[in-house]
Each structure stands twice: as C-alpha cells, then as structure tokens.
Specification:
By secondary structure, the chain is of the alpha+beta class. The protein is built from eight helices and 17 strands. The chain starts with a strand and ends in a 14-residue tail after the last strand. This is SPFH domain-containing protein.
Length: 398
C-alpha cells in the first residue's frame, strides 16, 4: 500500500469528482501539531469494507503547504509525503516516500518506525504541522540567579515571555511525542514536560550570558542571543530525542527581587554621586529645599529660618567643605591633561650645590636657596656676577 502523485494540473471540485474518496486534514489552529485526515467527499461503494477506518484503493489525499502527511496501516507508517499536492492511494504500489524539504534524512526515521504496527486492519491518514508553533508561554516560578560583573554581585531575576518550536523530524516527533490512539493533539497537550526542560535550559542560557559578561539590564534586549544560547543548550537533545527544536525566544518582562533591586539602585546612585558636578548639584538642591521648607514652616517663616540658621551653624561647615571639595575636583578635572605653565624666560638658574636646574626660589632637588639677584650660576656650578663664567667662560643665560 502506498501513494503516487495524482494529476496536478486539474483543480477544485473537477479534480475531486474523479476519485472515490477525497481526504483532507482536519482544521489546524496555530498551536495544533497533529490531526487526522477527514473525508470531504465519498463516492458510492467506495468503502467496500464498510468501516471509517479504511482508506479505499484509489482515494485522493490532499496535502497543503507546511504539512506532513502519513498513510498509516495497522498502526505502522506505510508511506508519507512532505510535498504539497494531490496523491492517489494504490494498494498494489510500494511506498513512494516524498521527502520534500527533509531530504534523505527522513528515510532513516521511516525505517525505524514502519515496523511498529499494533492493530491490524486499521487504515488512517494523519497530518503533522510543519509551521513554527508560536506563542508558547513560559515564566520563572522562583527568581533565578544571575551574576553581574558590572555590579559585581549575585542578582536574582524573574522572566516571563513566549517561545516557539518547529518540528524538524515529523516521523520521530510522531513516534516519541504524539500519544497513542489520538486523532488530534495541541501543543499545550504535550508541552508540560518540555516546559520543565525548557526552563532548565533557560537557566543554563542565563548562566552562559552572565559568563559572557552581559549586564543584567541588557537581558531583555538580547532575545535573539538568548534564543541562540537556548539552541546550543537544548536543540541537540530535542532534535535527537523528539524531532523538534527551539525556534525563537521572546522575553516580555524581567523583574528583580527586592534585595537585588536595592543593590542595583545603591550601585547606580553611588556611580552618579561619584561625579563631583552631580554631588555639587545635590548639595545646592538640598540647601534650596531647606530654604523652601523653612518658608513654609507652620510656626512662621521666621521660626523656620531661625531653625535653619541654627542648623547651618552646626552643619554649614560640612556643607561648605563638601561644596569646596566638589568645586576643587571639578577644577582638577577641567585642568587635567593641560600642560604645565612654562617658567618665565630668564628665571632659570642652576643650583650651586647640586647643579639641578630650577625656576623657583629654592632648589627642587636639595633645597638650596636661589643665589642673590645680580649673581648667576653657570651650568658648571660656578657663581658669577659678570657676563661670562669665571670658571669655564660660558656666557650668562639671556
């Protein structure tokens, strides 16, 4: 028993009228993965055995795009196709095995499943959805740990979102995932076990992102990278065992537990207050808020300003010192990188004690005072008063 391609040039009811029975897939939703074929047209005397579980010789099977059709006899797959079109059932023909997009790899799965028959005398047509199965929801029940190198802390987050899967080996998927004696299966019917495995892989993927130095605040924008991590973690196992893989992961929201949020806020505030300009703005705004509060004192503005005056006497020294430090650091930052001012021309002198070149009043090397005005020290160390060195004859520096 097998299938052969029917004439594809004809279409619509004209084609269907040529066959005893016409079989099409039952309705498929976005998350439907498996349905049975149903008879949409039945000719007189076509089913000679009088049973709904028999596919008559000469019946027409319609396969739509992104569908995988299997012809099952006695519980074993006797033929299949992954190509859209019209197919005629021939009881006398051998399996045609139209592999479509799956190539020769599908034949290996067929050789493993075709001898698995269980109930003789039952013939059925089944369809598997090859489209991306989207909108599968996931969420972390408990906060998962994430070490962030930027914050240098072990943080904990919760994530919610959706993911999608795609069937890569429909015969293996049929054998390992689809429950026996089921004519219709939604993904949610079989997803509970796989969701647990997905969450384990999700934790592993987060750990890998942490090891790669991705900041925790960047995780929501890394859905594509996260899907890649998930693929590395889970796809090989799911492909090998169940004939499906993770297609995409979308994170809808990420939240932190209370302790992690406090640590993040503290670190961010500390980073901002490390800027002297921000600190000075905070000092000035604190003073302004104090003046505003004093003016609105319920006991009268004078009492408020008197209280503020007392407070400024006790805390003003600290506020003034803090403001002075901020201004000094801003000035240092502004001057950073600027070259030191050159010594005025004609003020360079050499120490008569150690020979070090100087421009100030004292030698920077040994502390010897600069020679009195009118005298000068030659580079050889001799102190002179004339235009030439009495020791070596060098002229005085201009």
């Amino acid at each position: 028993m097998g299938i052969i391609k029917a004439v594809t040039q004809a279409a619509g009811s004209a084609l269907g009228d040529q066959w005893l029975e016409a079989i099409e897939p039952d309705d498929m939703g976005d998350q439907t993965v498996f349905v049975r074929g149903v008879q949409v047209r039945k000719g007189r005397g076509s089913n000679t055995k009088g049973s709904g579980d028999v596919v008559s010789d000469g019946s027409l099977i319609h396969v739509y795009p992104n569908q995988f059709m299997m012809l099952v006899d006695g519980g074993k797959v006797v033929d299949y196709t992954a190509e859209e079109g019209y197919y005629k059932v021939e009881n006398s023909s051998m399996p045609s095995l139209f592999n479509g997009q799956f190539g020769e790899a599908l034949k290996e799965s067929f050789n493993r499943i075709r001898f698995g028959g269980i109930t003789p005398g039952v013939q059925k047509v089944y369809y598997i959805n090859l489209q991306e199965i989207k909108g599968l929801k996931f969420g972390t029940r408990n906060a998962v740990n994430y070490f962030d190198n930027f914050y240098n802390a072990e943080l904990f987050l919760r994530a919610h979102g959706t993911y999608s899967v795609k069937i890569t080996d429909p015969l293996k998927f049929y054998r390992e995932v689809i429950p026996k004696n089921q004519d219709r299966v939604e993904m949610e019917d079989v997803n509970q076990q796989y969701l647990s495995e997905f969450m384990e892989a999700f934790q592993t993927a987060l750990n890998q992102m942490s090891a790669d130095g991705v900041r925790i605040s960047y995780v929501p924008s890394k859905s594509r990278e996260l899907g890649s991590y998930m693929a590395q973690t889970l796809d090989e196992e799911w492909n090998r065992m169940r004939g499906m893989e993770i297609q995409a992961v979308g994170i809808a929201s990420i939240s932190y537990d209370e302790e992690s949020q406090n640590l993040i806020n503290m670190r961010n505030k500390g980073a901002m207050m490390g800027d002297p300009a921000v600190r000075e703005g905070y000092v000035q705004s604190s003073i302004a808020e104090g003046l505003k509060a004093a003016g609105s004192n319920s006991a009268g503005s004078m009492a408020g300003f008197m209280g503020m005056g007392f407070g400024m006497q006790t805390g003003g020294g600290f506020m003034g010192a803090a403001s002075g430090t901020n201004l000094q650091q801003m000035q240092m930052a502004q001057n950073a990188g600027q070259p030191a001012a050159a010594a005025p021309k004609g003020q360079v002198w050499y120490c008569p004690n150690c020979g070090n070149q100087n421009s100030g009043k004292f030698c920077s090397e040994c502390g010897t005072p600069r020679p009195a005005s009118g005298s000068w020290t030659c580079s050889c160390g001799a102190v002179n008063t004339g235009k030439f060195c009495t020791e070596c004859g060098k002229p005085k520096n201009p």
